[in-house]
Amino acid sequence: MTDALRIQDLTVEYKTRRGVARAVDRIRLNLEENRTLGLAGESGCGKSTLGRAIMRLVPHPGQIADGNIYINIDEDIPCKKGDIPKGEVDITELNEEQMRVLRGKVIAYIFQDPMTSLNPMLTIGSHFVQMIRAHNPEIDKKEALERGKAVLEGLGILPERVTDYPHQFSGGMRQRVMIGLGMVLRPRLLISDEPTTSLDVIVEAQILEQMAELKKEFNLTMILITHNLGVLAQTADDIAIMYCGRIVELASVESLFESPQHPYAQALLLSVPDVTKPDKKLVWIPGAPPDLVDPIPGCMFAPRCPMAMDICKTQVPPLGESESGGLVACHLYGGQ
After folding, report:
1. Cα 134 from chain centre
2. From 129, 194, 208, 224, which residue has the greatest number of CB atoms within 10 Å?
3. Would you identify the CATH topology of the domain 3-236?
4. What is the pLDDT of residue 203?
5. Are residues 54 and 90 in contact, defined by beta-carbon separation less than 8 angstroms?
6. Distance between CA 159 and CA 145 in Å, rounded?
7. Position 187 pLDDT exceeds 50
8. What is the pTM of this model?
9. Rounded to the nearest 10 degrees, what angle do helices 124-135 and 141-154 cross at?
10. Residue spans in the chain of domains classed CATH 3.40.50.300
C-alpha cells in the first residue's frame, strides 16, 4: 500500500516573549492511502498545529523548525513558479505559490469553527465560486456556482440556499458547508479539525456518516483531529495519541480500545463514559501538561503518571513497536 503522507522528524516551534515553545516535537508518521488517522489528546497537545503544519499554515509566530512532510501526488501539477512533479514531494521545500496550488486541490483542511472560518460578508455561493476559480480560473462563475450547488445538495442542503449568508445557517449546516468547501476540488488528503465541536449528538452522527460516505465515494485519505475518542471509535482506522507535541502511542482503533499500552492512552479511555457499563468508574488525570517553554527532562507525562519510574524522569522514551503491533513511547516496555 502506498503512503499518501509521510512525516519525518517534524518540529514546529512558536516564539514567545518567554522563549521558544515546541508545539510539535520530532514527529514521525506514515499514513497509507484510503485510511483515516485519528489524532487525539488534550487541548494544547499539538494536534491542530500538526494538521496546520501539513498544510504549511502554521500561524505566526509559529514556524516549521525542522523535518520533512512528503505528499504522494498522482499527476504533474502545473504552477507558474515551478511545476510540481508527480510522485512523493517534500512540501517543506515548495514555495508559497506552489503550496497555494496544492491547498484545496491535493490537500484540504476543514477548520474547527465554521462560524469564524466563513466570511460573514459573502454568500455561501460566493465561497464556492472563489474556491473553485482560485484553482481553476478557466471555469466561469456560473459553472462554479453550479458545482457548489451540487456539492451542497449531496450534503443535504437545498441548492437555492447558495444565496444565503453564513449566519442564516445552523451550526450543523455551517459544518456541512465547510465539508463541502473542503471536498469541492476532490482532494486526495482531507484534514478535519474537530468537525463535530458544539454539535448535538444527532447532528454529530449525521456529519460523521456523511464524512464516511465521502471517504468511500472519493477514495479519500483522512486525518481527523479531535479529543473525542467516541468519534474516533466510529470513524478512524488508526489512532495516534499525542501529548506535549509528541506521539506517545499509535495503533489500530481496535488495538487501542481493546488494549491501550501507554499510561496516558489508558487514562484517556478510562475517562470516557460507557453506556454499556453503567457501573464504570470514571477516572480523571490529575495535574496539567508541563510548560513547553521550559520543558522537563525525560518523559513529559511522568509527573502525572501513576506508573512513573526513575528512568522516566531523566530519559525520553523512544517510540518503538508495542506488543499489539502498534507503536508506543514508554519505558514500561523496556525502552523499545
Report:
1. 24
2. 224
3. Rossmann fold (3.40.50)
4. 79
5. no
6. 10
7. yes
8. 0.91
9. 120
10. 3-236
